[in-house]
Amino acid sequence: MEQNVKQVTALKKEKLKKINALGINPYPTNCQRTHEIVELINNEEKYLADKQFVQITGRLTAMRRQGKIGFAVLTDSTAKIQIFVKKDGVGEENYEVFKLCDLGDFAQIDGICFMTERGQYSVLAQKVTILGKGIRPIPVVKEKEVDGQKVRYDEFTDIELRYRKRYLDLLLNPENKATFIKRSEIITFTRNYLNDQGFIEVETPTLQPLYGGANARPFMTHHNTLGTDLYLRIATELYLKRLIVGGFEKVYEIGKNFRNEGMDRTHNPEFTSIELYQAYSDLDGMMHLTEELFSQASLLVNGTTTIPFGDHEIELKTPWRRATMLELIQEHTGEDFSDFDFERLSAYCTKNHIEIPNGAGAGKLVAQIFERFVEDKLIQPTFVTDHPKEISPLAKGKPGHPELTERFEIFIATNEYANAFTELNDPIDQRERLEAQAKLKELGDQEANMVDEDFLEAMEYGMPPTGGLGIGIDRMIMLLTNNTSIKEVILFPTMKPE
Questions:
Q1: How many angstroms separate the CA atoms of 34 and 55, rounded?
Q2: Phi-psi region of 232 (alpha: psi -120 to 50; beta: other; left: phi over 0)
């Protein structure tokens, strides 16, 4: 295979020399385009009737030459169309240029639309201009029939290769390109939806002197001029809350976060998320916003709220189920842990081979039991509420329940998609919670939060009641495009070096 590529590349380079010898620049600085191809396709009768001169550009994706005539298919981002080239129509010199073109080259075609003798709508070329000469062969898509269906078997059905050479994946697998078009549509819809609700989009630092806003291990770097270590952000939360203190009432940020953690089908070291904060709102407000956002985004890209995902059929129609973490544990294990009895929780974890982290309290063990016995049972959209305070250092406590907070996570098809709080706005309580996190870090918990004195000082100036929400954009797009691997929805996922 590699030897064949080398041979074809050598032939293409010889053609490149011939083009240069003709005094033609195969990489011109400009071109002319009067129409996108889709316009010609959608207005066939018009362009056949008026014989309007057109200039179209794109990549040559099929070619066939027979003596003094040749056919090609030109493809741009909107559509494709057949090109008919006659030697006596373009002239001997320009026909020679056409003969030096290969599959994958970019070209400009000047001509008029017409119908071939075989009834094929085409562009009759008056001139062919090379816009970009490729010197590597584009892999040919190969198919075979299996049980009456065409099945791909070329090298670009290999997942690893598709991720590493995404540019070829997009060329050869239009269904994968369609996923990324949907990704753009979903993000644009999300932005417009929030803007219409009165939210303001903001930008906060990616390089931070302290990391926080989530339980995660960060990436560290060093700034030479300042002589200080900095962290790539793991979340945008603490800076967005500073803006609520500063007088903004509705803010959001869509951007990359970075976590130095393991990789699997739902985790990539860098990922896109949205966080939003709304003053004078709470957990219920965040629930309504979240289910509306997901359901309307599904209507946009799928035309329905009933969608396939893996082996499941998911119904995103609102309202979604609401259940507390303790209720779900009891539902799936038969155990009632509402008394937060540490000894009983510890014994249950030991019996079921559930890890008990160093320094863990009853709340942490409740979360561990939920993760083991409940998460993989949650198929239809479920707001899991009332998380233990021990694992929710930034969420407001639940009145009358000292062990719990006003927090939810959304689970769909066993995966978590969003996290939300009625935000903690008591600066004294917040300091105590972060200091407790710092003690966990001293005990070896690398994902525990740090004490951010500047954030605490901001809170001491006063913060209104606030609802906050974070959504994993990549996972949301996985759900809405029926992709069970995060690498299918990230254009250039992180890969292990070859």
A1: 5
A2: beta
Beta strands in 141-209, from DSSP E residues, in sequence order: 143-146, 149-152, 200-201, 207-208
| 423 Cβ neighbours under 8 A, 6+ residues apart | 241, 277, 394, 395, 396, 463, 465, 466, 467, 468
**Residues whose CB is less than 8 angstroms from the CB of residue 118 and which lie 6 or more positions away in sequence, other chains included:** none
SS3 274: strand
CA distances from 203 to 102, 196, 221 (A): 45, 19, 20
The span from the first CA to the last CA of the chain, in angstroms, equals 18
Query: What is the pLDDT, as a whole number, of residue 438?
Result: 86
DSSP 139: P
More confident site: 441 or 378: 378
Eight-state DSSP code of residue 390: G
Decide: pTM greater than 0.85. Answer: yes
Question: What is the three-class DSSP state of 102?
Answer: coil
At CA 449, angle to CA 448 and CA 452, rounded to 5? 160
**Nearest in space to 230 (alpha carbons), one of 219, 217, 214:** 219
- One-letter amino acid of 239: Y
Q: What are the structural domains, with CATH classification, of the chain?
A: 2-132 (2.40.50.140), 147-172 (no CATH), 176-320+380-488 (3.30.930.10)
**Angstrom distance (rounded) from CA 480 to CA 494:** 22
Q: Is 303 helix (H, G, I), strand (E, B) or coil?
A: coil
What is the rounded average pLDDT of the residues 201-207? 98
